[in-house]
Amino acid sequence: MKVFFIGVILTGVLFLNACVSQPAPLRTKYTMKSDGAVPESQKNLMITNAELHFTVFPKQKSISGKSILTLISSKQRSEIGIDLDSLFKIDAIKINDTPLDQSMYSNPEGLLKISLPTPISGEVVLTIEYSGKPRVAVNAPWDGGFVWSKTSQGKDWIATAVQGEGCDLFWPCIDYPVGEPKNLSMHITVPKDLFAAANGVLTNITDQGQTKTYHWQANSVQNTYGVALNIGPYEIIETTYQSIYGNTIPVYFYHLPESKEKAQELTKELLEITHFFEKFVGPYPFAKDKIGVVETPHLGMEHQTINAYGNHYKKDKYGFDWLLHHEFAHEWFANQLTNENADHMWLHEGFGAYLQPLYAQYLHGDYVYMAYMHSKRLGVRNSFPIVGNKTLSVEEVYQKETGPGGDIYSKASWVLHTLRNLIGDEHFFAASTELVYGRPDPQPGNFSPVIANTQDFLKIVNRVTGQDYTWFFDVYLYQASLPKVVKEQSEGRVLLSWQIENDKYFPMPLDISLNGKVLTLDLSTQVNIEVGPFDKLIIDPSSKVLKEETYVNEYQEFMEEARTLK
């Protein structure tokens, strides 16, 4: 799940605790990571079509699966690598309908290596049949896998959540952004009293008597970890959203029977939230599929067109359901726009987190917006750069020893806040829209999902504004420490200047309030301000700029000491 406090919690400590919950041999390092360096056996390989068949056995907490993957190799190869948890037994593998002998494949650590009878290039159809007990999520969604739960009425309630560890926890995939299937179909067989909700459009239900098979077809490029199974005694709220772009989009909320009234209210809120995103970002990306939300036994996850929701229908102190809002934001920032590598995950999480205070501002005005931003400011840590300029796995981004962790939420929100104040709303939202859609003029039907990185966003900002903001990205994203305002005071004057790690160029303008009058200073060089003994000088009175703040540092130290004493 991608939420600020989750980003903080999902540190090395939590991951280590999760690791001891199962025998070490079952948790291979390869399987438990997602993204990172692509192995040789998967380079120059893409999935054009993924046809996934699942039979789910709740009593046994097991599944059987059959995946038919249409692959395109841009080079000749004699070996194919597919990610699949080594907990599963491989029952059969075929290449273009030719069965392979067991000696031609192995999966000791989660990278299923398949030797080809003859070298191939171009298109190949790979069929993998497998079965077993999938990894149980010890603490979903932070620790990924299957959730086997029961409703208050004693019915089976099952979900998958695999953002941190990846799609290979339950289906054969290429567990990297480059592995996104261009087309996806899912065929989910469950006991007859259960409903299987998944990505895309429900095209058919086949009744086998004791079981039913739900046939789903996704009509867009599919986020790999966003593929999801959600199984329970669901009832369905069905309505439509009239887009501000002129098209009508089907809306489905799959909820437990006992949640009907609350789900109806939350569906109304979902329509309002969708309007907000379309107004400030652009068209809902997956109108050919649906706007989908499903009630889950875990907190939530941004599964494409079937957002997992488990926040118990609670509004926060800003008057809306932050969990629904955050996960739904990822339809734009994660599913439509996907980061090139986890090192650029702030493009998902920073924008996703910043859109909550933006929504609070949209609902209630500037006071609530700044209150929201202040709460985020108290969580900024600056231990690692938001972007390390190196290939990272999801785990490495979140671990406090190797990556920025929660700063991709809290600090990135403030980076976006500062950028917005610097370049203005018109340029900020125009650049954000172009980042998401790969074009400045998105309309329903004229875009498809894109993969981008931080430099792509910088190029867009520069083009939209007509100025070079490399200095801004260098200081705020590519190094950990924050800009610091140096204030030197003597009789009759105050000297102000920026102090930047490595003395980097940083021509950030800065507002001051002198006896209530706001002035904007050019701090590219030191500024001398004449002040009297009773003059009141406030630096950055409207909190437009992310910078080091002594009171924040002191508060964080106090809170850390308090936690240590508990």
UniProtKB/TrEMBL annotation:
Keyword Signal among record annotations: yes
Signal sequence coordinates: 1-23
Top EC class, one word: hydrolase
Catalytic activity, EC: 3.4.11.-
Domain Peptidase M1 membrane alanine aminopeptidase: 276-475
Keyword Protease belongs to the record: yes
Ranges in coiled-coil conformation: none
Domain of life, per lineage: Bacteria
GO molecular function, one term: aminopeptidase activity
Name of the protein: M1 family metallopeptidase
Species of provenance: Glaciecola petra
